[in-house]
Amino acid sequence: MPERSEKLDTTIDLLIALQDLLQLKRDLTDNNYGELGFQTGDPIAIDKEIESLKSEIDPAIMRRYETIRRKYDRPLVPVRRGVCYGCFVKFPTARLAEMDDRDVPILCESCGRMLYQIP
Length: 119
Ligand SMILES: [Zn+2]
Prior knowledge:
By secondary structure, the protein is mainly alpha-helical. It has five helices and three strands; from the N terminus they run ααααββαβ. Strands 2-1-3 form a three-stranded mixed sheet. Strand 1 and strand 2 (about 85) form a beta hairpin. The protein binds zinc ion. Zinc ion (ZN) binds near residues 84, 86, 108 and 110.
């Protein structure tokens, strides 16, 4: 297997962290954690961290992520054994090999989500 681009690895890590914080923000708004007795961090601090993550991600990739986010809550999903975890459609093997060679995440041809490979 070809070595995956280090730049892509970093981008994916940042995007996963960003997606977690965006989810946390939604949970805070939707579920009213305070009333449920959960202790949570300061929403302003969460927003600051979100901005900080965004500033470290390549602007073109970030724009693409935001575009997909208008359609899906989770624009970034894993692909495992050639199957997209956003829509569960199987990928052609050639596309998967291509994925490791690039500096930008590839998109699922079926649902349009951004993908990262897991073992
Ligand atoms: Zn998909």
